[in-house]
Amino acid sequence: MSYALTFTATETDALWAEAADAAEALVAGEPDAIANMANVAALIWQAIPDLNWAGFYRFDGEELVLGPFQGKAACIRIPLDKGVCGAAARLRASQRVEDVHAFPGHIACDAASRSELVVPIVAGDRLIGVLDLDSPRPGRFAAEDQVGAEALVARIAAALAGA
């Protein structure tokens, strides 16, 4: 497989579909979850515009621990009762936040972040972690971004679990 990925879609749903196809191809046959997370974080960083952070937090059974990402240095550990990532993991439900400064308990790893989309990664009934996307643009993530990110995660969850 060539790792020179090109994304041509201009509509949000089509761009996420291209990214999901590429992510599925990148992780195919690779059993290492960390390697898969690293490649998918880079792919999302390349494919999705207006991000200042894209990556993963892994669930260690107690809290979220920083995984592979693209962007500035980040918080290393996040309790499930803190921040947008903690809420997504605790509730096992995506969190789309238009203004992170209005989110109670928001953890500001990068002061430039203004909006956030966090999608839980669940394989079977086991929480693997979360995909975290931040943008310096308020209201950056639309419902179509959430649907697209959830579909991408669903397609590769087993590979991110190391299965």
TrEMBL record:
PROSITE patterns found in the cross-reference section: UPF0067
Name listed for the protein in its UniProt record: GAF domain-containing protein
Residue spans crossing the bilayer: none
Family of this protein: Belongs to the free Met sulfoxide reductase family.
SUPFAM superfamilies (alphabetical): GAF domain-like
GAF domain segment(s): 11-163
GO molecular function: L-methionine-(R)-S-oxide reductase activity
Annotated source species: Sphingopyxis indica
A GO cellular component annotation in the UniProt record: cytosol
The organism's place on the tree of life at top rank: Bacteria
